[in-house]
Amino acid sequence: MTRVKIIGAGSIGNHLAHAARRKDWSVTVCDISAAALERMRREIYPGRYGQWDEQIQLFESAKAPRGEFDLICIGTPPDSHVSLALAALEEAPTAILVEKPLCPPSLEGADQLLERARTSPTRVFVGYDHVVGRAIRKTEALLRDGGIGAIKTIDVEFREHWAGIFRAHPWLNGPEDSYLGFWQAGGGASGEHSHAANLWQHLAHLTGAGPVVEVESRMAYVRDGKAWYDELCYLTLQTSQGLLGRVVQDVVTTPTRKWARIQGTEGAVEWICESPTRDVVRVLRPGQEPETHELSKSRPDDFIDELSHIESCWAAPAGTSPIALERGHDTMLVIAAAHQSAAERRPVRVSLSAAHPVSGASA
């Protein structure tokens, strides 16, 4: 039986624990807080999934077992991701999954993790689950057909008021109660909704446009009590092959809009995360009715598909997974450059190394 250790008993830890149990895997969850473990057992897990699963083992972090797991998942705040991933590499699991974003925009330790992972047999992934979901696989198939001609631009938006996040985390009173309210800690629109930047990069790779090499951004920063975060994050991205496109991430939009459009010379493909239970992929061509593909799902399916993708990579030759550490690292390079661009009010070239400082943002 596949053995999984999940570090962090918060919202993502519950999602991953449930997904792993749906796959009939053995699950151990650890957290530095005994109260968080009890909240998982009594409130979060049964509230979402009907009842607590007695097969899940809970440990305070200092007492958690080590060295006996196939997969270690890190579902803690971003500023702890790198140190926990480095420690997890010492346990030599088959794979490690780090929740997104990989790290704060300071990028501290990101290069070290990347280099350590490159010399380790352990595969490391970052939890941008949308790029391994069913809807994006359908999008990829349609793009391979070549029915929209040469790709001219890509647009991606993840616009979602974060009230929904706080409803899923009722123990938080607002942004300042967690990393979510601090852009320097990996929160705000740039970090929490970095799915959009990651999806843009993924689509650019699919279309042969290469990596992002330049970022120009505009951000709206908010100071609210102790919190300091970006509520609006607008990015213009350019790749090594000259593809130009746009990313919008925010925490103010309601109703939610999670959408991508790949525009070609002869039409477009749209990816739409329409609701927690339905995704839509649409092909648009001039003078023709839209070709619409609806994909039903449940919220747990997003995480089950993610774990299934990682499982499929265990037996496959080493290669580039859409959620490989290298891709999550690239996304953080873009987010770091975006904050620098906003602070300095100029386009910023994306560094080939994570080991560089990020300028402070203007409030």
List the helices and strands and how they pair.
Blueprint: E1 3-7, H1 11-22, E2 26-31, H2 34-49, E3 57-60, E4 71-74, H3 81-90, E5 95-98, H4 110-118, E6 123-126, H5 134-144, E7 151-159, H6 163-168, H7 188-192, H8 195-206, E8 212-224, E9 227-239, E10 244-250, E11 257-264, E12 268-275, E13 278-284, E14 291-296, H9 299-314, H10 325-344, E15 348-349
Helix pairs in contact: 1-2, 1-9, 3-4, 8-10
Walk me through this protein's architecture.
This protein has 363 residues and is α/β, with parallel strands linked by helices. The chain is built from ten helices and 15 strands. Helix 1 (11-22) crosses helix 2 and helix 3 runs parallel beside helix 4.
Describe what is shown at a glance.
It contains 10 helices and 15 strands. By secondary structure, it is an alpha/beta fold.
Structural class: alpha/beta
What string, H for helix and E for strand, traces the elements in order?
EHEHEEHEHEHEHHHEEEEEEEHHE
Shape: globular
End-to-end distance: 51 Å
Could you please say which CATH topology of the largest domain applies here? Dihydrodipicolinate Reductase, domain 2
Classified by CATH, the class of the largest domain is: Alpha Beta
Largest sheet: 9 strands, mixed
- The count of strands amounts to 15
Q: Which oligomeric state applies?
A: single chain
Poorly predicted residue ranges: 353-363
Strand content: 25-35%
The helical percent reads 25-40%
Mean of all residue-level pLDDT scores: 94
Number of domains: 2
The CATH superfamily of the largest domain turns out to be: Dihydrodipicolinate Reductase, domain 2
Radius of gyration, CA atoms, in whole angstroms: 20 Å
Can you tell me the CATH architecture of the largest domain? 2-Layer Sandwich
Strand order of the largest sheet: 14-13-12-11-7-10-9-8-15
